[in-house]
Amino acid sequence: YYEEVISLTYSLTAVNISPRMWMMFHLMYELFSGDGIDYFSDMISVFYNYVTVGSSEFLNDGGQRLMALYNVCSTALTYETDVGDNLAVKLMEIIILQFRGKVETFLCPAIELVAKRLEVGKRTSDFLIVCLDLFFACLLHNPQLTIEITQRLYVNEQKETLLHYFLANWFSDMNIFISLHDRKMCLIGLCSLIQLNQRPPVVAELGSRILPSCITTLKALSRLYDMTDP
C-alpha cells in the first residue's frame, strides 16, 4: 500500500506541484513520522521533487516544510540502522544548493547532524563523499560561516575538528570523486577556499595545494565531459 501511494505521489509531483499536492507533502511527512522510516528510500525521490520542482513555493510557509525535512533527515541519521544515512545527507545538500542564500539557518543544524553521525563511527567511503559534497555546498552558500561551524564541532575522542577531518580526507585523495556531480562539487569547494577572506591555520597550511588541486580537478572534469559527449 505504501509503495503505491509513494509512487503515485512521485508521478504527480514530477513536473509541477498543485495546491492539493502541497497538502500531500504534509501527509507524506506524517507517514514518515509514523513507521515510514522503513520506506525512506522510496520517499526520498518525492521529497526531492518538492524541493526542486516546487522550489518557488517550498519556503513560502514560514519554514514549516524546511523544518519537516530537517526532522526527516535527523530521524534517518540517528536511526538504529544506517540505511538512510547517505540519502539524508544528499537531501540536505540538495536543499542547500537549491536555496542558496535563503536557508542560512539550515547550515548549522545540517552540519551538526553529520558531525554526530561521524562521531559514532560512521566512516564508510561513500558516506564520506556525500558528507564532503554537503560541506562543499555549505562553503558555496556561506564559506566563512561554514568554516566557523566546522571548527567548533568534533568527530572523535581525540577532539579532531570536523573541519580538520574534512580537509584531511579531501586533500588526501581527490580521486575518490568519480561522478560528474562529485567532481563539480569538489571544484566548488576548492574555489570557495580560494575566496576565503580569513583562513584558519588548518586551511592556510593547504594554501599551496589548493590552486594545483583546482587545475587537476578541472582537467578531470573536462575528461569526464569528453567521455559523456555523444
Automatic annotation (TrEMBL):
Note the superkingdom of the native organism: Eukaryota
Question: Which keywords are on file for this protein?
Answer: Cytoplasm, Protein transport, Transport
Gene Ontology CC annotations of this record: cytosol; nuclear envelope
Domain Importin-7/11-like TPR repeats residue range list: 16-219
Q: Name one GO biological process term.
A: protein import into nucleus
Which SUPFAM superfamilies does the record match to this protein?
Answer: ARM repeat
Major location category of this protein:
cytoplasm
Q: Where in the cell is it found?
A: Cytoplasm
The name of this protein is: Importin-7/11-like TPR repeats domain-containing protein
